Amino acid sequence: MSSTPALAFPPFGPDHEALRRTVRDWVYKELHPHRKTWDDAGEWPARELIQQLAQMGCLGIRYPEKDGGQGLDWWFHTAFVEELAHARNGGVVMSILVHTDISTPVLSEIGTPEQKEEFLIPAMRGELIGALGVTEPDCGSDVAAIQTTARIDGGDYIIDGAKTYITNGAFADFIVLAVRTGAAGHAGISLVLFPTNTPGFSVGKKLDKLGTRAVDSSMLHFDGCRIPRRNLLGVENGGFIHIMQNFQGERLVGALMATGCMEVSLQDALEYGRTRKAFNRPIGSFQVWRHKFAEHLTSLQAAKLVNYAAVARMQTGEDPTLQVSMAKLFAGDLAQKVLYDCLQFHGGAGFIEEYDIARACRDMRLMPIGGGTSEIMKEIIGKWSGL
Ligand SMILES: Cc1cc2nc3c(=O)[nH]c(=O)nc-3n(C[C@H](O)[C@H](O)[C@H](O)COP(=O)(O)OP(=O)(O)OC[C@H]3O[C@@H](n4cnc5c(N)ncnc54)[C@H](O)[C@@H]3O)c2cc1C
């Protein structure tokens, strides 16, 4: 009988494995022991630990060396993101990824040398922390409807409006901010680099969230905030396309994060099922659970391959929108089923905070919502399919 041909990807080799080991060791030393206390406290020492990641060379793995990055590629970055799941705290992971994949990529791609000097290079050193401000109280999915304005006044923009649910927003040093500089609709939107020490900027009351509780996702207010026009990213009124392009990396790391969380939660559940007994036998030996886990482990592999198809597109530079939308949709929705069963398998223990599965369920409920909902992913996939 002929053997099954090896998959052509993912191209992970010894160097990726070495990075995985370094990241995983750090996660188990620095993040994992605090996964519950940081959730209870509603904060984590982001500044200190993001600086440690900078020293490990993990903040700009896929950015050019001249921008303070490591000059590696999306496969190394994928290995990094997957290992973060071992923290078993989705809020902390999201906070890190907002810095590495949600706020800084657009700066690396279209920032001027001066903007990179002022914001990106210090961000790669862990000296500045970034956030992305798109969503507003009156619009999220419909990005083209944003109302926060940036009005020209001499050499400055004057910014007025509000943003909401902005992760890292309470402590970020700068926000990649979507503002209206022109007419209504997508053709009147720009991106600016907003330093949070600007007078007139304030953080609203803490939002009480279902999950990702270790990091703030804040309401932000802009009241006559004056920033220099040199902080415009890209061209004026050309911001919408950059927001959409930036979403691809955000959605892909969301899919990787959800898949990583499923993987560690399945491992934890299988471990629990080997020792917990009912009717004098390990609960994992009941056929109903063996079959459920067989299905979930198979789906996990499928999620990884959908993710890797999207990573491959990011790597080649071809338009990744279809593959990324599929990856986010698939992993985000699958996580709900897999984590539900992992919690159910723990019985009453699953409902108790002592186990990690309760937090995983809460944190991953965000995945079909944040960065573009599952319904929006279906709209995008539908359009690409000519529907
Ligand atoms: C914890 C958390 C962290 C976040 N972090 C950030 C951040 O750092 N930066 C940032 O800018 N934003 C952030 N967000 C915002 C997030 O991206 C939005 O919540 C998301 O895009 C959905 O927007 P919305 O909440 O306004 O929902 P809405 O747009 O009001 O949608 C409500 C419902 O209507 C559905 N819907 C909308 N349009 C359609 C359509 N065309 N077809 C079918 N159904 C539709 C949606 O799918 C959803 O089910 C965060 C959100 C949360 C909860």
TL;DR?
The protein is an alpha+beta fold and 387 residues long. The chain has helices at residues 14-31, 35-41, 46-55, 74-84, 90-103, 105-110, 113-124, 239-275, 287-316, 321-345, 356-364, 374-384, and strands at residues 130-133, 149-153, 156-167, 174-180, 189-195, 201-203, 217-228, 232-233, 277-278, 281-282. The protein folds into three domains: 14-124, Orthogonal Bundle (Butyryl-Coa Dehydrogenase, subunit A, domain 1), CATH 1.10.540.10; 130-239, Butyryl-CoA Dehydrogenase, subunit A, domain 2 (Beta Barrel), CATH 2.40.110; 241-384, Butyryl-CoA Dehydrogenase, subunit A, domain 3 (Up-down Bundle).
Please render the helix and strand layout as text.
Elements: H1 14-31, H2 35-41, H3 46-55, H4 74-84, H5 90-103, H6 105-110, H7 113-124, E1 130-133, E2 149-153, E3 156-167, E4 174-180, E5 189-195, E6 201-203, E7 217-228, E8 232-233, H8 239-275, E9 277-278, E10 281-282, H9 287-316, H10 321-345, H11 356-364, H12 374-384
Helix pairs in contact: 1-4, 4-8, 5-8, 8-9, 8-10, 8-11, 9-10, 10-11, 10-12
Structural class: alpha+beta
Total domains: 3
According to CATH, what is the topology of the largest domain?
A: Butyryl-CoA Dehydrogenase, subunit A, domain 3
Q: Give the names of the bound compounds.
A: flavin-adenine dinucleotide
Mean pLDDT: 96
* Strand neighbour order, sheet with most strands: 1-4-5-8
Biggest sheet, open or closed, and with what strands and sense? 4 strands, mixed
What gap, in angstroms, lies between the N and C termini? 43 Å
Beta-strand fraction estimate: 5-15%
Relative helix content: 40-55%
